[in-house]
Specification:
mainly alpha; 5 helices
């Protein structure tokens, strides 16, 4: 069963971790996550965020048929299909990290 509060917290943690909107490039900011989530859940949420980012960066793209932007779009679509609970802003942040790391 969906939990909108937990989904929102996870999405916000993804954005905070990557620094979307605060940094000119994606980063791995544990402290931003720890500061943005309930203390009791911080370690578990940080682990989920790290796993999501790693999974996104590991999505395989056929670079012979995709340019960087198309690859980022594909990674975003794939993550949206796997994790429909993530907000569009969180998915955009993951796409941002994906394209930055594959540039």
């Amino acid at each position: 069963m969906e939990n909108p509060v937990e989904d929102r917290v996870l999405s916000e943690a993804v954005i905070a971790y990557l620094g979307k909107g605060r940094s000119p490039f994606p980063r791995s900011d544990d402290e931003a996550v720890l500061a943005s989530v309930p203390e009791a859940d911080a370690a578990a949420i940080l682990e989920k965020v790290r796993a999501l980012v790693e999974e996104c960066l590991g999505i395989r793209i056929d670079w012979s048929t995709h340019d960087l932007s198309q690859g980022g779009d594909e990674a975003k679509r794939e993550m949206a299909a796997r994790y429909p609970e993530l907000s569009d802003d969180a998915l955009v942040a993951l796409r941002w990290a994906f394209t930055y790391n594959w540039r």
